[in-house]
């Protein structure tokens, strides 16, 4: 996700201080990965240099000055372009899991154990997401649904890989130098 675009989108509702942006971001998007304050201010600095935000006011404080940021017309245009551009689907053509399977087979380790451990991890994560979804608001429910659908697809891959493990083992060992 583009943190810069998310911050710009949040600024469209009105000027804010960096800590307000961080809090708003974390409430809406950062449940699993909240932003660090340094990341917020570094991003705002880049947006400022790029002309996408401007300083709307400065409030003196005990520490550093507190700047309030506002989105510029160029920033609004940039958000519009970002929203209009579809995201390229991530195909995971060379996943870490596939690499682990091949390495296990090449080194004579039980690749089925790799699949079993991964399946258990996926199921644990799915249970946690299902519990979170039951108590979350609509936005959190949608985030959980998105993750659950991806995990279900991964589980289908795990089952397919388990069914094809003997054939993969033959292919991998025949190609060994």
UniProtKB/TrEMBL annotation:
Gene3D superfamilies: Winged helix-like DNA-binding domain superfamily/Winged helix DNA-binding domain
InterPro entries named among the record's database cross-references: Tscrpt_reg_PadR_N (IPR005149), WH-like_DNA-bd_sf (IPR036388), WH_DNA-bd_sf (IPR036390)
Residue ranges constituting the Transcription regulator PadR N-terminal domain according to the UniProt record: 7-78
Pfam families according to UniProt: PadR
UniProt xrefs under PANTHER family: NEGATIVE TRANSCRIPTION REGULATOR PADR (PTHR43252:SF6), TRANSCRIPTIONAL REGULATOR YQJI (PTHR43252)
Protein name stated in the entry: PadR family transcriptional regulator
């Amino acid at each position: 996700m583009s943190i810069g675009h998310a911050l710009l989108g949040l600024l469209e509702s009105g000027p804010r201080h960096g800590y307000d942006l961080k809090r708003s971001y974390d409430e809406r998007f950062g449940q699993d990965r909240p932003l660090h304050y340094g990341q917020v201010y570094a991003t705002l600095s880049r947006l400022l240099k790029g002309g996408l935000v401007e300083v709307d006011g400065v409030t003196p404080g005990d520490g550093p000055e507190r700047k309030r940021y506002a989105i510029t017309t160029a920033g609004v245009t940039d958000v519009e372009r970002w929203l209009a551009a579809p995201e390229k689907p991530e195909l995971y053509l060379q996943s870490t899991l596939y690499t682990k399977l091949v390495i296990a087979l090449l080194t004579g380790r039980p690749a089925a154990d790799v699949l079993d451990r991964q399946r258990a991890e996926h199921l644990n994560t799915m249970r946690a997401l299902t519990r979170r979804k039951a108590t979350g608001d609509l936005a959190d429910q949608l985030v959980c649904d998105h993750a659950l659908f991806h995990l279900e697809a991964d589980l289908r891959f795990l089952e397919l890989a388990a069914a094809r493990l003997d054939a993969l083992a033959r292919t991998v060992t025949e190609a060994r130098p």
